[in-house]
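Supplementary Text 2. Reproducibility record for the structural model of the 709-residue chain.

All settings were left at their defaults, and a single model was retained for analysis rather than an ensemble. We include the record here because the model underlies the residue-level annotations in Supplementary Table 4.
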Amino acid sequence: MSEVSEASPEESVGPDAPADAAPRPSKLDQKINQLFSGAVVRKDLVKAVKGNAIVPSYVLEYLLGQYAASDDEATIQAGIDTVRKILADHYVHRNQSELVKSTIRERGRHRIIDKVTATLNEKDDVYQAEFANLGIKGVLVESATIKAHPKLLVGGVWCICDIEYFHSADPRVVPWILGSIKPIQLSNFDIEGYLAARREFTTDEWIDLLVQSIGFNPELLGSRAKLIQLVRLVPFVERNYNLVELGPKGTGKSHIFSEFSPHGMLISGGEVTVPKLFVNNANGRIGLVGYWDVVAFDEFAGKKKRTDRALVDIMKNYMANKSFSRGVETLGAEASMVFVGNTSHTVPYMLKHSDLFDELPESYHDSAYLDRLHCYIPGWEVDIIRGEMFSEGYGFVVDYIAEVLKSMRSQDYSDRYQQHFSLSSDISTRDRDGIHKTFSGLMKILYPHGEAAPEEIEEILRFAIEGRKRVKDQILRIDSTMADVKFGYLDRNGSWHPVSTLEEDEYPAYYRCESSDAADEPRADVVRSTRHDGTPNERVQVSEAPLFEGHREFQENQRGISFGTLLGPYLRGAGQITIVDPYIRQFHQARNLMELIEEIASAKDAADEVNIKLVTSENDGGEDKVRKQLEFLLKVKQGAAAGGINFDVSFDDTIHDRSIVTDTGWKILLGRGLDIFQFVTGDAFDLATRRQEYRQVKAFSVTYIRAGQ
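Retained model, structure tokens:
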């Protein structure tokens, strides 16, 4: 998968650009329109037409898909105007409900867009509809309509409806008549055409198309960040999938489940009851799990939240056995369960003092319940949503991709890795099920045509194992009777590949509940000597541990890394340092170089001088970009001089490898040069702007070699 890229401030789009200004279509956008004509839409158009309408994105994209699914600018603008007019004429704003009711009365019939919920009136043996924004209820609905659209009974559906008005002298007769009703969702699609078109995309192109379909700009996300976004879709494509995501506020945890699909239902964690979720034993009516593909619980975290113990027990049984009881009858269902909530502490704090499920209500902080979870998304790795993260590119109309995912729920891709890899033999059945379901879901999302290279399969398998391992490792903290498990897999050659979680690599001492390795700490030695007068003298001398030699790998999204810890000890005491990096061209790359120089300047004696030579290559983007590059490097030279550092640059367009060499005998091979950090906002109040260890990194490697080795 491609790595994350980062634009300089000079290259970013300003916030004052008009919402429906036409961005220049990329080659990928052109390809998307060519192969999925009529099924894709420019994602920034939703914001352009939404205005103050409180309506899910899939409703707006349904309309945009009808009128603006094109890459022709004239067609798009005409489509935007049409959709705006439809919303103005037919969408019901709550504060204008009386005006709309008056319009229906005066005209006799009027088309509206509203959320409709139906109930059975047992007394009169009729179905009646309630319109959320229009504020009318008791509207008769034909039984055939309920049979065709049963979700009207559970949670409600956004619909396009024709409402008629006929007043009767009988006060018991509701004057509102439902003339027609059409739920807002795709009626049909061609799955074979979808699979054939998928074959025309590379894996990176397909992933970027999916990320744009969710609404994000893939250029600002690394490969791991993209996978984290896409695993949120697994509940829509995998039956009975149990997913949890806990993390900081503002990272978009619930967005997918409220805006992305007409087959998902987002409810507040505090609103959950047994009758609403499973079955009302008083009347036998089935709850949400019987009608929706995904039921997501928002604001699920909160230690002090009151919970119904009976609900927890029924939920545990459903999550394990895919069934629940209605009296003496056992009923099966396919709804996936998603639990999202906010954390109030950092990851190391939770690992040191409790566990990563610490925020859950007490009744759910239970090993038997947690063991039913198939995957734990590390929400703390997801960036807080910023304006520039939204896509202006083309993506699937969400009701189209929602129908694609729904159509694949019955298929099983869980065995697609077995010709290349095998899981550890001591992984339990429940652990194996969790890994298989995550793997199967991601395979259906990324490789629906079933064609993937071994290394692509391996990446998904590792991610699926990590998601389940995160669950199991925290259960072991809660319940010491649970058996420890070696998570990993064997390749065809029989080589063992262990899998760890990212936070396990970042905070090993806290993750394993043990003190940090003494080998990494300075060693205190007692030095004994004799004074001139013959009396013994003892003093404590701190000896630094020898510097590491060899190769190290760092995962994408890892934190706690800085030039000070990564490179500082190896550069200390050097008088001549040569940096070879062909990509010191853009603003953020020059900033990284300046931060390394700052580290060197702060570590050296104020009376010393250090000579730094940079060998890089010219920006090949034209004269303007070369001029900008030279301006950046001149500013670096001027800034370095103030710290007693002599900075020089030479250009060599033949270089490719990245390295740092010192006159003290160290050579450091840098897999991706100094460009190791992900996007930083530049906000002066963001710790990541001020200190590198709070930034997430891209995947990279470093090799430390001492001269003569």
